[in-house]
Amino acid sequence: MYVVTDKGGAIALMFAALLFLGTWPAVLTLLERRGRLPQHTYLDYSITNLLAAVLIALTFGQIGDDTPDMPNFLTQLTQDNWPSILFAMGGGIVLSLGNLSTQYAWAFVGLSATTVITASITVVIGTTMNYFLDGRINRAEILFPGVACFLTAVFLGSAVHSSNSADNREKLAGSSNYKVNQGLNEDEEMKGDAKMNEVTTDMEAGSYVSDSIPKGGKAEYGTAEFLLELENRRSIKVMGSRTIVGLSIVFFAGVCFSLFSPAFNLATNDQWHTLKEGVPHLVVYTAFFYFSVSCFIFAVILNVFFLYRPLLGLPRSSFRAYLNDWNGRHWALLAGLLCGFGNGFQFMGGQAAGYAAADAVQALPLVSTFWGVFLFGEYRKSSRRTYVLLGGMLFMFIAAVAVLMASSGHRQTS
Questions:
Q1: Tag placement on the chain: N or C end, fewer CB within 10 Å?
Q2: What is the pLDDT of residues 396-405, one digit of tens each?
Q3: Can you spell out the DSSP letters for 364-406?
Q4: Is the pTM of this model over 0.90?
């Protein structure tokens, strides 16, 4: 079994995990914005997410000597270690539920703000739990100021979303193509319906026809026309929804994310002494395998159910329709690989340097915000207040990841 034994290697793995875990949400967001049903996307993603865990287990988990204290992956599959397996599978379930929730939250709150808030909650709750589970191997005087930075980012992220939502409402209120239902009489409402029907035509290649955009043109990022174009094209319709709806989904996802890393920690280190005497702890690769299996099973069950009983006004689908939907499937499969390898690298680094320090990868919004701003045009043409809040949020994340990295300890393996 390959074991990361030095702090430098652990930090390198964390940075790779940070890049991967910050990129896969952008891929799924891209597919939702192109109109692909999230149920179809998540089923594809789940397949390669499990495949990544299997590949890691059969390669890194089989390299090197097979010793009684640190058995290889295949050897450990036959051992009596069910208490640890259940902790690992419990972590996979809450991660699956959190990822599934964020897929809807990205539509309501935006990629940048969603990843900021969920990552911050994950660190505030999960990192604190990991600190004590790890026997306090991380330096508290450095670690907890980093946690405080993430806590501050929770409030800044919520403020960014609220401010940006107000900016968008102001843009739409001044658009001749946006129908405001309140205060319209019946004749005006019928005219508004006809106007909106015009906007929904000619949607090829993400463009549409409106008074301000010539046929075949494309709306400028941040304009009311861009927001209308996006709403017409995307699979999850969010225009007119209350701010509390999106934030509720985000906070629920954040709580789920905060639990998966401590559960994985318990699975690999058995701090509660649930294993029988003489049974070795689960190695990180075996735990990650069971973690990913439960994540896959739970995701498949939920998403097949949502095909026939969709959430948030999405259209019904079927398993046959999913199998025949090849539009963007390769992107969803890529996202699963990125997430799978990102999680695997995070756990490998955490086993060496402490899971509390490995939670520094929750600074992934630095990567996701880059994609959100440059790929999806988030916060374009927003108010000065929104830009100030966004800058403060990113500054707190930069400080937080530096502090959590500096708190890294070293776990004794013998």
A1: C
A2: 877 877 777 6
A3: THHHHHHHHHHHH-TTTT--HHHHHHHHHHHHHHHHHHHHHHH
A4: no
